[in-house]
Amino acid sequence: KKKQTREKKMSDSDSQLHNVFVYGSFQEPDIVNTMLDRIPEIISVTLPGFKRFRLKGRLYPCIVPSEKGEVHGKVLMGLTDEELGNLDACEGTEYERVTVEVLSKDNSEKMIVQTYIWINKDDPNMYGEWDFEEWKQLHMPKFKKTLKEIIELHKNPQGKGIDDHTRIIHENLGNAPSS
């Protein structure tokens, strides 16, 4: 009986780990470390059936379903419930967390993961392809500073909620040039 109990406890803790597909700023290990206080295992993958867009006036991208599209990104492996909560807080109210299937770049294995898709699939502010290298050069320091503020607020809410996180994101990261 003791052995069964121990095995059950181990599987309970395993079931709380999450693999999350990221396709924007969270592909950068330094940003992930800022958010999680660690760098988990990160795997390069492709998400078929979606397209990534820039968002007019924003420093971050979005993805929406697109029959012939595919998005290259990373999977953050083995996130805890608390770490997933940090991601939820950072993504705010404009994204929905959904389950998707990605293909690993190494051996084309399929993997079921979670990701954040843009809720407004017909948003007129979506345009063009978001450029990760351009973002790193131009916007990473400001993004990192804002991320720290959101994580701190998430840890010590003081009556503030997810709408406040979204407001902070808009105030600090919503003045991107439209180029």
TrEMBL record:
Pfam families: GGACT
SUPFAM superfamilies linked to this entry: Gamma-glutamyl cyclotransferase-like (SSF110857)
Gene3D superfamilies registered for this protein in UniProt: 6.10.250.210, Gamma-glutamyl cyclotransferase-like
Acyltransferase recorded as keyword: yes
Gamma-glutamylcyclotransferase AIG2-like domain sequence ranges: 20-131
Molecular functions per Gene Ontology: acyltransferase activity
Keywords carried by this UniProt record: Acyltransferase, Transferase
Function, as annotated: Putative gamma-glutamylcyclotransferase.
Family per record: Belongs to the gamma-glutamylcyclotransferase family.
Protein name: Putative gamma-glutamylcyclotransferase
